[in-house]
Amino acid sequence: MRYILPFYHVVSDETLPHLKHLYRVKSVREFEHDLDYLCRHYEPVTLDAFIRFGNNGFQDVRRPIMHLTFDDGLRECAKVISPILKQKGIPATFFINSDFVDNRAMMFRLKASVLIDALFHISPLSSTHDEIGRVLCCPKKRIIATIQSLKYSDAHLIDAAALVVGIDFNDWLTKHQPYLNADELRQLVHDGFDIGSHSVDHPEFRYLPIDEQVSQLTVSVAALQQMIGTDVRSFSFPFTDYQVSKHFFDTIYANKMVDVTFGTAGMKEDVIEKNYQRIAMETKWGVDFTLAFQRLKWMGRSMIGVNHIRRS
């Protein structure tokens, strides 16, 4: 492929309870190593440049390019990531959930991680586990697995279980401030980075009716534009764009709601010309193995003609 789209969520040398039980967080040293490797093999480009190259089928690309992206709008994007990117001269886009800016609300999976972390500090023999089992309608031995399996529509169960262990997420947000605030978003724009939409509050789109899918995009784009005072031209799907219909893409592009969208399927091509797939970099492997594995999958799928995502 003539381009890659690596994506991360956060970089930190600290243990973050709201992420600890979700995915592997890379350290500053690991992240800088990733960037050095990526820049040796790919030319970093801005979002505008990536869109221009894409509009021409990447025919003008001389050296393979990359555009770096970050999802969920966590505060480390401003505190840790952007200073490193500025020092190295690497452009990037930060995809933001509009409801979470200023720590006004919290994604359900981050809540789940906080709850799981708290439970690991409470004896499984305590009555707390019995009560949480009743809230979640599961046996004590299945509490952690049940919490990990909860969906967007189950957020109320996470809130109720958290109260049993004494966690009020409004208080938790006020104390820990895991998300970016509007001033930090504006500073990222001032520093030359792009801001994109990542939906209002991070649902998985395949479980939403199309009117709610469109609303998640349009409402978040409008809110972010009001916050930062500039156009928001890009959207990355929360979780995945798996089973998102062609009708959705036809709707948003016909009405010029955004210029480009991004999924998370790795090195795959999409029947939707302006929908590009990104590579998750928060793996247990190094950057070299992660990309080599993606290339092998891409070549294998291409050989048997299954590397295009089709949509009904």
Automatic annotation (TrEMBL):
Compartments it resides in: Secreted
PROSITE patterns, per the entry: NODB
Chief subcellular location: secreted
Domain of life: Bacteria
Sample GO molecular function, one term: hydrolase activity, acting on carbon-nitrogen (but not peptide) bonds
SUPFAM superfamilies: Glycoside hydrolase/deacetylase (SSF88713)
A cellular component term, taken from the record's GO annotations: extracellular region
Ranges of residues in domain NodB homology: 64-312
Keywords, comma-separated and alphabetical: Signal
GO biological process, one term: carbohydrate metabolic process
Name assigned to this protein: Polysaccharide deacetylase
